[in-house]
Design goal:
The complex is a heterotrimer.
Chain A: E1 7-18, E2 21-32, E3 36-40, H1 47-55, E4 62-67, E5 70-71, H2 77-82, E6 85-88, H3 100-105, H4 118-132, H5 147-160, E7 165-169, H6 177-192, E8 196-201, H7 204-210, E9 213-218, E10 221-227, H8 233-241, E11 259-269, E12 275-285, E13 289-293, H9 300-308, E14 315-320, E15 323-324, H10 330-336, E16 338-341, H11 345-349, H12 356-360, E17 371-372, E18 375-376, H13 378-391, H14 408-420, E19 426-430, H15 438-453, E20 457-461, H16 465-471, E21 474-479, E22 482-483, H17 494-501, H18 505-512
Parallel strand pairs in A: 3-8, 3-9, 6-7, 7-8, 13-20, 13-21, 16-19, 19-20
Antiparallel strand pairs in A: 1-2, 1-4, 4-5, 9-10, 11-12, 11-14, 14-15, 17-18, 21-22
Helix pairs in contact in A: 14-15, 17-18
Chain B: H1 2-6, H2 10-35, H3 43-59, H4 64-88, H5 93-115, H6 134-137, H7 142-147, H8 151-169, H9 171-181, H10 183-188, H11 193-219, H12 231-241, H13 246-270, H14 276-295
Chain C: E1 2-5, H1 11-35, H2 40-52, H3 55-80, H4 88-103, H5 111-140, H6 144-164, H7 199-216, H8 218-228, H9 230-235, H10 240-267, H11 278-288, H12 293-317, H13 322-343, E2 344-347
Antiparallel strand pairs in C: 1-2
Classes of the chains: A alpha/beta, B mainly alpha, C mainly alpha.
Chain lengths: 517, 313, 349
Amino acid sequence: MSSVASPVLQLHNITKTFGSLVANDNISLTLRQGEMLALLGENGAGKTTLMNILFGHYVATQGHIEIYGKPLVKGSPKAALATGIGMVHQHFTLAENMTVLENIILGTEPIFRLRHHLSTARAKLLKLSMQFALHVDWNTLVKDLSIGQRQRVEILKALYRDVKILILDEPTAVLTPQESDKLFTTLRLLTGKGLSVIFITHKLKEALSGSDRCVVLRHGRVVYETATKGIKASTLAKAMVGGALPEIKKKKSTTSSQQLLSCSNISIFGSQHQPLLDGINLHLFKGEILGIAGVSGNGQMQLADMLSGMQAPDSGEIQLEGERITHHTPREMMSAGIGRIPEDRTSTGIIGDMPVRENIALEHYQEPGLSRFGLLKFGSIEAYAKDLIKKFDIRCPSTETPVRNLSGGNIQKLILARVLSRKPIVLVASQPTWGLDVGATAFVHEQLLQAKLEGSGILLISEDLDELLQLSDRIQVLYKGKISAPVSPDQVNAATLGLAMSGHLEEFSQQIGQPAP
Amino acid sequence: MDILLFFMETGFWIATIRMATPLIFGTLGELICERAGVLNLGIEGIMAAGCMAGWTWVYFGGDLWGGVLFAAFIGALFGLLHSLFTVHLGLSQHVTGLGITMLAAALSSFVFKMLLPKATTPPKIIPFANLDLPWLADIPFLGPILTHQSPLTLLAFFLVVLVSYLLYKTPVGLSLRMCGENPLAVEAQGLSVYTIRTGAVVVGSSFMAVGGAFLTLSAFDAFYIGMVNGRGWICIALVVFSSWKPWKALLGTMLFAAFDAMQMRVQQQSAMVIPYQFYLMLPYIFSILAMVIMSRRAAYPKALLIPFRKGER
Amino acid sequence: MRLEQRENISPYLRIAAPLLAVLVALGFCSVLILWSGHSPLTAFLFLLKGSLGSKFAITETLTRATPLIFTGLAAAVAFRAQLWNIGAEGQLYAGACMATLLGTGMLPLPGWFMIPFLFLAGAIAGGLLLLGPTLLKTWFSVDEVVTTLLLNFITLLFVNWLVFGPWKDPMAMGWPQAAPVIDSAVLPILLPKTRLHVGFIIALASAMITWVTLRFSRLGFEIRAVGHNKHASRFAGIPVRKTILFTAFFSGGLAGFAGVSEVCGLKGYLTLDLSPGFGYSGIVVAMLAALHPLGVVLAALFIAAISIGADSMSRSLNISNYIADVATAVSLLSVLAAMLLARFRLRWR
């Protein structure tokens, strides 16, 4: 069907450079009516940049865009919206302290109208939500919605403007497998009504199951384009990475019976006294990777913050090798032997405006080796930094370079270097490969497995189910602050984990044959 | 006992409302800026510029309302400068605001000295007369209080109603509030964050300047260097106190002015016991206390102080 | 209009930024001078002559720069840690009050001990005054900009009470001023027949020490880290709250130095016109110096030269000396813009 339909959107020779970086290199693309197009590529391939050009956030350095045969005004989201392009950003563009309705009608009325026409808006939304089975309460504040609901609001926002083309940037990144399925059902409804959809993804499975056609980007270029039907996953993978996907080495079980970390009956409450962590128990043993699965926002941040010393639990106890560390500060946590890889590496893990050297020393500058009499020992710090740069292959022009100029992969290497060079007893790794390309991801995985071999216990908090299933020795699922019993990755698959991640803990327990927590 | 009797006196309420008026303008102006996500520390200087501009207009033969408009225009110009720096260039709102205050205050003093180099005592003008509304005067208690006010006070009350309506009931208010909460959401809906924020800062700054003009055109009849005397900073504290809501801002300024009027009375009666300087400190101390009290509950606009740069995410 | 980040910032551009700012300020003032009916060239000549034209003029400029170095350092240190201390004016007076309290005869100490003692006491007073708003910031997250600003007014009223009330010098023929400091507390004059005093040397030394602290010490490392990213600093184990409190004490102390130096070096006693806004000009000095302690010295000299020069220009040309304040304010705004342009490139579409 898609091959006969007329093109609604054509990108011609789009090139976009940021300084010396070429994000998009001469990209041409066609979208047809009623088509579902997957824009596939690994992190950093230029997918988001391309869509931001299409939606007018960026202006292309070269090239032009045609929509229904007419040229699109450059650099104007307003023009894009007016011609019928809608975009659902990966990081939702919603104001949390405002109602759903306010978020949706923003910008849809003449700005100097003397009052909102709310009843017309409600009627239209009601019709849309019935038509596409997108149910949200209009009057709640966005901050009270779940991630899945927020995404529905974003889609409604676009539909409310009668868009003909919908772009979704990594729409499943924060959804459970079940929610993802629901999303694709919705998208199919849309294409059925004649809309065209482009979704950006780095997940092969999604591109294969969800799309009519795939366009693969690598290093800013279109390297492969195909109808999805009948194509093999390995072909797409090869196009995406430019070779075979790196295999994760067979897991060796190195778990011993020596318990390193135990959290008992941990609870943390939010500002409205709602439980963020609700009576959590977990035990981590020497030489194992314990995976924590779950959709973000279910207590992962609190768990990681707590073990990083950023937030003390309201009740319960944490022990490291039998020592109580419940109320340790970040520095005390580190000296007790906990290494931390933070979830948001650029805003928590590093200080972007400071040089590489000082960022490497950031956690240990006060120790006798690196400072004396209140003064820093510059020579020692420089040597220390150079040593780690070499050992962990951190690519940087010099130790003086501000660390924000490094790529995401190199920043993560720096953080890994800082932590792993101390041989931590326990490593708390939050989303360690989020947003990294295949090479950097493989590097991180290797380092984690190496640390495990050397006897560290690793708590791996991740949203990437494949990563968890491949690396972990045991997996526990967090949902609304509660944690499931541990399961072995051999016992479960992504779908079963998805049940637990969306709160169906009982069904989950039945499927794995264990009592509910 | 005496203190309680104040509240029954019309004189006390007349003074309270008069003292509240410049603060209402200033607080409302600052509130508009901050609701759009821009802190405007230029307020102290913009009020001074408003004082000066309004007075100059009238002193050189213009009429009083012309003076108010001229002050608003000058305020808008400084607002434009502030928004050029903070909105378009994304510079530090703290430092830019202080710079605007310094510039506006210095320019006002300079221009005043150049226009009237020989003046030893501040030259006077004829300020706004009290409201002449017979039907209003007949209302018991409230009547005399309201008719002893300048028309500018009426304007201030009207603006509270207007701003409140615009903010919560109209598309322009919605987009302004959204700019203060999440500018990316505004841009993604096809509106220009730059335009909305600039508009908010320009309008807010002109309100501030009118607040300044009230001082020379209504409260006093002459211009003195340094006559704003921290009122701008107090307005910023009052915005926090009012949780960025126009009606609460009105309440806050009235409460504040009532305290101020009260301390003046007490001061007159007990000047011998406690030196007057300590009474003069009270407004500033109240402002600090107000900020401390409200800080826990402060629901400040999420994007306040954060510059928005297009194409950077 | 768009801003595009430059990948490499050339060092020339960094130095060019403040110079450009100064040019813009002078250009703006030329317009004002033209409006007042004079030729800008003549006016600037008078300004230059008044500030640098003679040995005496130069010493006057250096004398005026002394408090500006202190307040400029106070702002630079605080701003480095993203602590917006706008209260240097009040802290200056706190230091001045301490010098008056202890230096006017209460403790008859010898000079070699008295002067360091008074500086220390003044620094403690200034530091403590900033500690209040800083604690409110760290405990209740109350914005320190407004509290430090308001505290300036409170402090000035307090000083007003002191010099009109309990500290009023009966020998001052009714002027509101405190008694002069005793001889051992007076800062020695550096050059005979000028007003340039040892305070200037202390200011230079303070700039040096501040630079070493920020660049080479653990505290300096912590201040910079906290200033760039509080959250990441806390994560890395840096005691953020303690660092901010230290910074506050450091910054307030430097402003307190300014007060001691003015009382013991220039005026000899506490008055209400001790500081014509040195605390606020200090912010401009710090920004012109891009928060670099050694740059503060240069920037302070520039601002001092402008204001000394403007005084003399206004005497000869009948142009109000408020033009110095205008120039100061314009240089602040233009240095902000210039530094941005050093980091970013302007692109029109």
